[in-house]
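Researcher: Here's the sequence for the chain we discussed earlier.
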Amino acid sequence: MPLQQFDEYAPLFAEGYIDDSATPMVPVTITDTNLRQRVDSIIINSNDTIDHVVALCIGTEPLLSVNVPAGAGFGGVPAVDVFKTISTWSDLDHLTFPTQGVVLKAYAEEAVQSGKVVRVHCIAGLV
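Model: Thanks. This is the structure I predict for it:
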């Protein structure tokens, strides 16, 4: 397979919200494109006052989980850079979905408090 097959030809920014209306352990869609994509960065922030474990899924298959501290991305608390957080995959810097129809989803293992939100930002490109 030639390498140029994975060169990005168009940017893609997707964002998913996990709020108090989301059911714990039920994924919300982050990327919903039906095109092939390469995910270059996943950043998670939260204005909730409690920590959350956020799981990322490829379709319905769990991929990884990260801890998102209370207030991540606000008031001096750094947002969570997923690829830099995963110590077991220290050299992971992107995900390539080489087939069409692959969807990135996320869910919180605990309920988000009323009026609060956990945001999952996905910076990617179409390949």
